[in-house]
Design goal:
about 40% strand; globular; mainly beta; SH3 type barrels; three-stranded antiparallel β-sheet; about 80 residues; 6 strands
């Protein structure tokens, strides 16, 4: 995945939640644009936690992104 494509998803107005799948089989849900920092070859995502405060950060190489899909409005986050 290219950084520009991910940045477009994060900056979309109005923002639409999306899920990122990686080569190791993990998936990450992005429910707010402040949850992600896009860098040239990777992105950093705040994971877990509550009330808008992340529990920890995951650093993911853009080369390991397999696919991205939109999360339908009203869908509940994966645990």
């Amino acid at each position: 995945m290219r950084a520009e494509h991910l940045r477009e998803l994060v900056r979309r107005q109005p923002f639409e939640a999306f899920r990122v799948y990686t080569t190791d089989g993990k998936s990450y849900e992005i429910h707010h644009p402040d949850q992600v920092i896009v860098l040239r070859s990777r992105f950093v995502i705040g994971v877990g936690g509550s009330n808008g405060v992340a529990e920890h950060l995951e650093h993911i190489a853009l080369a390991h992104v397999v696919r991205v899909e939109e999360i339908p409005s009203g869908a509940t986050p994966d645990p």
